[in-house]
Amino acid sequence: MPWIDACATDEIDEEDLIRFDHGDRTFAIYHSPDGEFFCTDGKCTHEEVHLEGGLVMEYEIECPKHNATFDYRTGEAKRAPACVNLNTYKVKVEDGRVWIEL
Known about the structure:
The chain starts with a strand and ends with a strand. The chain is 0% helix and 47% strand. It contains no helices and 11 strands. It has a 4-stranded antiparallel β-sheet, with no helix packed on it. Strands 5-6-7-8 form a 4-stranded antiparallel β-sheet, with no helix packed on it. It has a 3-stranded antiparallel β-sheet with strand order 1-11-10, with no helix packed on it.
């Protein structure tokens, strides 16, 4: 699996996310309150809405359309209407850059 350079670590504030598009896929990259970085699919599993406008609190992302929430560390759907988990991707940080494994 290739590692893709997604962004700089300072592009994402703590408890926030950025959208990262690669090919025909969209991802969300999160900066957790403890300084770690995580990556999930970038669209809600309920209606394919981009998560980039959603609210990040602690370790959850809330979809901006219908308020479904997911634990972005595991992808677990935590609140309806979403019932399908998000895919998650391995992340590493090197030299101030966030890399994701696709």
